[in-house]
Amino acid sequence: MIITKQYRCIHSASCQCSKGHLSEDAIFLVFHNLKWNPKLIATLSCVCKWFDDLAKRVLWKEFCRTRAPKMLCDLQSTGSHVVDGNWRALGKLLTYCSGCTKGGLFKNIQNPVPGHFVYQTRFSRTSGKSFLLPQCRTDVLYVSDPCEHLDQGEEGDLGFFRGVFKSFATSKVRKMLISKGANLHQTEVCPYCKAKLWSMHQAKMIPQSASCRLGSYEDYIEYFVCLNGHLIGNCTLLPLSDSEEAAELE
Q1: pTM of the predicted model as reported, rounded to 2 decimal places
Q2: Of 23, 123, 181, 247, which alpha carbon lies 20 to 30 A from 57's?
Q3: What is the dihedral of CA 102, 177, 145, 187, to 10 degrees?
């Protein structure tokens, strides 16, 4: 296929794309053949603002549709053409475990745990119900299996999990957080969309079923929800035999 038309980058005077850009259609076909590789999309986004804009509007959207088609169909079933927080944020949530920094969101963790790329993660709407109080379980929440970071010294075996609400702006969880007068975190923001965060622990909105679902100690689980409905959490995992007993109790 011969590409004749090119587009000059008009976003940045320092852009290295001095010879212009290929058309969006050509780039779309390239990444379609690359199976919407998220690492390559992220790399392309760093080239210049033109590519970053294209990735946000098109490439991350197609990646999300390919990676989690059933979840995306459900999240968009209300008619919204874009999920809360934008496509890039959702793409990052699907593929990236945020870890934690020392003195960051999770106060029970003394040593930093670096974030990392995750090749495959299962997100479950059924599991999401376990993270909601009974009066909020008509909300739709997809939550990942915990990303296990084993043998973390005094902290033991840690699990990091993440999730996303459907139509968070109209959810019962959001209404309850507001009615409780829950405060937004003063310094930390969502690692996926940079929005401010509510602590579900401080709002006393973490049910016992969450620790049972994760296979974790009940007193060592905490999660946050951002203004766009992204959930990030951490827990201390039980030994395997104990976690099996917790699952039976659930």
Answers
A1: 0.85
A2: 123
A3: -20
